Amino acid sequence: MKYHTINSFDEPARVFKRAGAPEEIEIPATIAESIRLYFKRKFSAEGRRRFRTDHFPVKGDSAKEVIRKIVRAVAFLLIVAGLLYYVYYYHNYRQRVAQYGKLTGIVNEYIDVPEVKLDKAWNDIKSKYPAVTFPEGMNIKYAPLYAINQDVVGWLSIPNTNISTVLLQSEYSDYYLYKDIFRETSRYGNPFVDTNCRIGPDGTSKQIIIYGHNTHDGLMFHQLTKYMDVEGYRNAPVIQLDTLYESSQWKIFAVMLTNSTSDMNNGEVFTYLYPDFSSEASFLSLVRDIRARSMIHTDVDVQGGDTILTLYTCYQNIFKGGRLVVFARKVRDGESAAVDTSTAYYDSSAIFPQAYYDAMGY
User: Fold this and answer.
1) Domain 149-360 carries which CATH code?
2) Domain ranges of the chain
């Protein structure tokens, strides 16, 4: 049998035929020609016909063959959908990480401005953003963020976690549930302060309530789940909260897993999201109820004159509609922010919703 050969890889691509072979059989001379011929055959009329008959039910197929083709097609579609889902969420994750890196950089631009340079810094900012009216007395480091969005009310961070985020507050209760600081749609949304809470130059509500998503990729309020373990509490017992007017620290005193719907707890829902109280007695009564439901026992005391901070997120790993809530009270004037965590322990006597006991088999 006689074959044609190529003497040089520098020759233009050509198609050779085996001696004596039928006219329609082409033997490629190069890899490029192999690829071209593969797709030529695949997308030819015959190739398309064979694809349909190989992968989709056609007249004459047995019932078993029809089922086989349907199962294979569905499996292929699920694989493609899974890959697209992964690419979409990975892109969103990287976009979110980059966005918060950018926001942190913006804040750091005017951090610790010396008093003697403060007036000049403010003049620079106001000339850069002439259309924005900045609140009197606000912290200059948050001015660029405020220029981006006048719903900015502060910054929340928890040392030894990845929680470090701008805080927003809208007149519409859940506006930022799926919108970011640029008011663009985002599956992450942005942590936001309850619309009924006061957080301004004249002080704050008795209870500041902040909502944030618990995302499976570890962003937003996901790391609040670490407080379900006593070691997580010991590693990060203090929260840093900056409003536009004040920097403050808060000592965590309770961690609660509760229900958001009545069907998860024999028709009952524990209500605790009150920005303000009619009296110190009603405030302390709520604190006692919160402590009774805290899975972590702490020795952080709460007094009638204190203010508390509430971080609220979803937690549905145990039962549907679960909510994980971390409570902290503001460090008092003249008080050390240090916390003795050696006495903390997991409290097995804590009160949980009925759905928790059902899921755990109690």
Assistant:
1) 2.40.260.10
2) 149-360
